[in-house]
Every structure is written in structure tokens, then in C-alpha cells.
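Aggregate trends can hide what the representation actually does to any particular protein. The sequence in question and its C-alpha cells are set out directly beneath this paragraph.
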Amino acid sequence: EATPEGVVQRYAQAVVDGDIPTALDHLVPEVADSCERVSRGSEDLRITLLETSEREESARVEVLVVTVYGAGPLGADEYESEEAFDLVESGGEWLIETTPWQLTVCAESGTVR
């Protein structure tokens, strides 16, 4: 749970579950404290870990995000993209600094700045 991957997993699950207070707990305080909420679509998401690059005080967790839209005559439509979370180590714990746009809950935490 204390690894960058564990933090990303708990954050992503909180976002998918609509548990914004828990999601905010995993963001850096500068973002969480001044959170300008953005609404997330109603699409289903699947997130798969691809790779983690960990440095002394920062980490990058790369994931595959599959977005599932509705259901057509041949099944659901899906879109997949490789995305990344950027984390920083603070006080012995990992906190998320930027998130993929599909999992953004605060305008400041999205990858587009």
C-alpha cells in the first residue's frame, strides 16, 4: 500500500467509486486543498499497471486506461490509451501530483496545466 503503485490503485478505485474525499487524500496538499472539482463522465474504466519508474523523491506510474462507452449491436465501444501518474514523496508517503485526464477530480491535478 505504501508504494507508488499502491497509491495509484487506491486513488483510481476511489475515483471510480465516486469517493472523492478518499481520492483527495492521495493528492499533494497544494492540489487537494484548493481543489476545483471537475466532473467525471459516466463511462466505465479499466486501469492496468504498465510500468513504474521510481526515483529518490518522485515516481511515475504508467497505466493503460480502457474507457468503455455504452453498448452497440456488436458489444461495447472501447478506447484505450497509455497514461501516467506523477507522484512525489513527502514525509515518508507517496502523493499524486498529476493524474490522467480520465481520472482527474481536481482541475489542478490533470496532466494538462
